[in-house]
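Continuing the batch. This is chain 6 of the set; chains 1 through 5 are on the previous pages. Same settings as before, nothing changed between runs. Recording input and output for traceability.
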Amino acid sequence: MHRQAHRREPAEPPDASAAMETAVRFLGARPRTRWELDRRLRRAGVEEAIVATTLERLGELGYVDDAAFARWWGEQRDRHAPRGRRAIETELRQHGIGREVIEAYRSEHVQPARAPEDESLPGTEDERAAHALARHLRGRPLPDEPKALQRIGMFLVRRGFDPETVRGALRRAGSFAKESEGR
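Output for chain 6:
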């Protein structure tokens, strides 16, 4: 028994209102970059001219702002999964953020000014490394064995922290542990 393949008539490409609806639904989950929205609309079969006008309109309304996305992404990383500057910049590039926006983000976050309600967020690279180390250790003491320290150091390097920052974080954590033992 041979079955005939069911052929669908090619659907018409989405019009401007359908494209806007698709984009807004996509933005509903979390902020998106211009590049991510462009890809999503093209995957939905939206014509290039409609994609451009939709992105332009969303930009005018303030829903698509790559600089705001970079700030949001960095804050989310600091809050939930601390990463070093290099790792955050790599992630931003993967989301289609341009070099100029990343450089502006970098200059903005060399010594970020935090709002009083955000005191819990790490500000400097050293604070982020210490925060990542504390989350990784989950209250356990820093091990004394060189191999274990090396593994923890490599964990922090994989998180995007440079080796000097990692050594400083491990030194501070080690001296803090020795001070608390002496009490």
